[in-house]
Amino acid sequence: MNDEVVSKLLNHREKLLGYVRKRLSSPELAEDVLQESLIKALRAAPDLRDEEKLLPWFYRILNNAIIDVYRRKHIETEHLEPYSEEKDLAITPEDEENLCNCFRELIPTLKPEYGELIEALDLNERDPKKVAEGLGITLNNLKVRRHRARQALRERLEETCRSCAKHGCLDCTCKHN
C-alpha cells in the first residue's frame, strides 16, 4: 500500500507543488513543505482506508503544513523582532572609544523630554516598555519620541560640530573632547 500511495502522489507532484507555491513566497520552502508532507503521508498511509480519497487527504496534510509554516513565521517575527532592532543599533567597542562626546554636553540644550529619553534609552539602556509605562504612553509613541529626540540631537551636533557630526562623529576633532 505504501508504494501505491507514493507513486500516486508522485504522479501529481507538479500539481501539488504548484498548489503549495501559490500559498508560500519561497519556491525552496514550497519544495520543503511538499517533501515533509510526502513523508507524513507515507508514515500515515497504512491507516488510509479509502484510496479514492487519497488526494483530498493529502491536500489536508499540505494545508496543515502550510498553516504550520505561517504559525512559525508569526512566532519568529513576534519574538525575534525586538532583538533585530537592538542588533542594528549596537555600537562596537572600537566605535565607542572613538565616539565624539560632544553630544553629552548638548543633551541639556534639548527639550527636557528629549534629553530624558536619550539618557534613559540610549545611555542607560533602560527597557523601552518600562520607560513607556513610566511616561504613560504606548511603545509606538515612545519610538516616535525617541526618533524625534535623536533627530533633534543630530541637528544640534551638526550645528555645533559641523563636519564630524555629518560623518558619524567618529575621530572627533572638536574642542569638547
Instruction: Encode the helix/strand succession as letters.
Output: HHHHHHHHHH
Global structural class: mainly alpha
Number-wise, the strands total 0
Q: Beta fraction of the residues? A: under 5%
Tell me which oligomeric state these chains represent.
Answer: single chain
What's the pLDDT, averaged over the residues?
80
Low-confidence residue ranges: none
CATH architectural label of the largest domain = Orthogonal Bundle
CATH H-tier superfamily of the largest domain: RNA polymerase sigma factor, region 2, helix turn helix motif
Helical element count? 10
- Domain count, please report it: 2
Task: Please give the radius of gyration in angstroms.
Answer: 28 Å
The separation of the N and C termini measures 79 Å
Largest sheet: none
Query: How would the global form be characterised?
Result: rod-shaped
CATH class of the largest domain: Mainly Alpha
Work out the helicity level: over 70%
* CATH topology tier name of the largest domain: Rna Polymerase Sigma Factor, Chain: A
Q: What does the model show?
A:
With 177 residues, the protein is an all-alpha fold. The protein has 2 domains: 2-88, RNA polymerase sigma factor, region 2, helix turn helix motif (Rna Polymerase Sigma Factor, Chain: A, Orthogonal Bundle); 92-166, Orthogonal Bundle (Arc Repressor Mutant, subunit A). 75% of the residues lie in helices and 0% in strands. It contains 10 helices and no strands. Helix 8 crosses helix 9 (139-161). The chain starts with a helix and ends in an 11-residue tail after the last helix. The relative contact order is 0.09. The mean pLDDT is 80.
